[in-house]
Amino acid sequence: MPATVVVGTQWGDEGKGKFTDLFAKEMQLVVRYQGGHNAGHTLVVDGETTALQLIPSGILYPHITPVIGNGVVVDPRVLIEEVDKLERKGIDCSRLRVSGNAHLILPYHQELDVVFERHLGENKLGTTKRGIGPAYADKAFRTGIRVQDLLDPKIFRQKLDVVLHEKGPLLAKVYNRLAPDADAIADKYLNEYLPRIEPYICDAIDLVHEALEAGQQVLLEGAQATFLDLDHGTYPFVTSSNPTAGGACTGAGIGPRHIDRVVGIAKAYTTRVGSGPFPAELFDEVGDHFVDVGHEYGTNTGRRRRTGWFDAVMLRHAARLNSLSDLALTKLDILDALETVKICVAYEIEGRRVETMPYHQTDFHKARPIYEELPGWQTDISECTEPGDLPQAAQDYVRAIERYVGVPVSVIGVGPGRRQYVHWS
């Protein structure tokens, strides 16, 4: 049975958790394929909000096996805290599985994240300082420590000693930080964390392929988004992994022939957190409206998000990069009170009209938005359940997005709740 990928198409925070939760009810496995606890997914079920960082959104369905794939970097402390929080709510986490090939975040990764960002000064990247980047860097440098290494204390300690031979002097002599204590780290990870997470550790590749071969439905869930992708995002203001649909293959251990649907999640406007170019960014009362009404603050960090109008140029590029089959449009209701709404349909760069994402970073920094303006609907749409329930102006806005992006919209979010959506097509 083919798999479905859910991918963010902007700079993250598109509301992927809500629609992953919606699609998940038809699935048997939900696999998180990249990122770490720097990404938060928020679900609202029967008025109760659940914020997830590592555990896949499908955990709220008792029939689903949630899997943390090999492409994820895992902080065991955060994972254990999240399991405990969910179980206090009465949510059974015994079905959770964690790939033995996933890499671990260790205390020195977080230390390095803090000092690297501080060292960059005004050129800082805006990381969450949770050790994600340094953990992925060690993975690429082939000095990473994986979840499966916890199952062999001798191997774990050998690998830890090798890494600290380099990291210890770097932190102590270059950044004037305390050198990591190998004994303390080994004791915490092997004696405190391992007993808690060992029941979840598995061969995730085998698990996923057994499900596919049995005809089960598999959902591949990404964190962050297309323009935070290490290869295709607005580098260097990106994450350290590949949130795009191609990353789903490597991060879950399947080939592209297993995927037959790629759903792009897009907010009805645009937001980003941290540094980097943002052509459609707003600095006026409309931008403040998006923040205030849309509650645009980071799920994990609480940082205020930068806001702007919907950028169709970016979405056209995201559609290319991910081979999008359809779009799920979130937070359309946040535009309810506006007299007019806008879509960025092209850029002006040094007097030229440009309708594709410029590949050169300098050009993208210079890009100025060219808008199409449409009338707003100034009507509460939060109770709409059918396309015809939406005001004509809201329908026209959705159709304009489809026209400019070149991808059909399949579902529209009209509120934060699990049931607040419209099946568009």
Shape: globular
Question: Number of helix segments?
Answer: 12
Q: Mind telling me the C-alpha Rg?
A: 22 Å
Strand order of the largest sheet: 9-7-5-2-10-1-11-15-19-20
Residue runs with pLDDT of under 50 for 5 or more positions: none
Instruction: Give me the oligomer status.
Output: single chain
- Helicity, as a percent range: 25-40%
Total strands: the figure is 20
Mean pLDDT: 92
SSE-based structural type:
alpha/beta
Fraction of residues in β-strands: 15-25%
How widely separated are the two ends? 23 Å
Largest sheet: 10 strands, mixed
Outline the fold blueprint.
Blueprint: E1 3-8, H1 16-24, E2 29-32, E3 41-45, E4 48-52, E5 65-68, E6 73-74, H2 76-88, E7 97-99, E8 103-104, H3 107-120, H4 132-141, H5 153-174, H6 182-197, E9 201-202, H7 204-213, E10 218-221, H8 245-252, E11 259-267, E12 270-272, H9 285-294, E13 306-308, E14 310-311, H10 312-322, E15 326-330, E16 340-349, E17 352-354, H11 361-366, E18 368-375, H12 392-405, E19 409-413, E20 421-423
Parallel strand pairs: 1-10, 1-11, 2-5, 2-10, 5-7, 6-8, 7-9, 11-15, 14-16, 15-19
Antiparallel strand pairs: 3-4, 12-13, 16-17, 16-18, 19-20
Helix pairs in contact: 2-6, 3-4
What can you tell me about this protein's structure?
- There is one protein chain.
- The two termini are 23 Å apart.
- The strands form five sheets. This protein has a ten-stranded mixed β-sheet, with helices on both faces. Strands 14, 16, 17 and 18 form a four-stranded mixed β-sheet that branches. Strands 3-4 form a two-stranded antiparallel ribbon.
- It is α/β, with parallel strands linked by helices and 425 residues long.
- The protein contains twelve helices and 20 strands.
- Helix 2 runs parallel beside helix 6 and helix 3 packs across helix 4.
- Helices cover 34% and strands 21% of the residues.
